[in-house]
Amino acid sequence: MSDRTRARVFVSGRVQGVYYRANTRDAARARDVDGWVRNLADGRVEAVFEGSEAAVEEMIEWCHTGSPAATVRDVDVSYEEPRAESGFSIRR
């Protein structure tokens, strides 16, 4: 598992109600990235990406644009120890 990277991402802007979570899930699955995404009560979206460093970095870049209807203002990223996530899901 040492070749895996894990990033926790908080995305702010107009990112709820614009299919941001569904598009994030689809983008992550297309890149073979594990983890999850959810809406937060404060209007942000939180996501955890785990996979190869290149794929995780692609997902972080993707978050700056996100879904076509989104308007992303900021993307805050922190790195953590991988936790063997499996699959990618939308959390409620």
UniProtKB/TrEMBL annotation:
Keywords on record: Hydrolase
One annotated GO molecular function: acylphosphatase activity
This enzyme's EC code(s): 3.6.1.7
InterPro entries registered for this protein in UniProt: Acylphosphatase (IPR020456), Acylphosphatase-like_dom (IPR001792), Acylphosphatase-like_dom_sf (IPR036046), Acylphosphatase_CS (IPR017968)
Keyword Heme assigned: no
Span of domain Acylphosphatase-like: 6-92
Active site residues per record: 21, 39
Reaction equations catalysed: an acyl phosphate + H2O = a carboxylate + phosphate + H(+)
Pfam families: Acylphosphatase (PF00708)
Enzyme class of the recorded protein, top EC level: hydrolase
Similarity comment: Belongs to the acylphosphatase family.
Name of this protein: acylphosphatase
Species classification: Archaea, Methanobacteriati, Methanobacteriota, Stenosarchaea group, Halobacteria
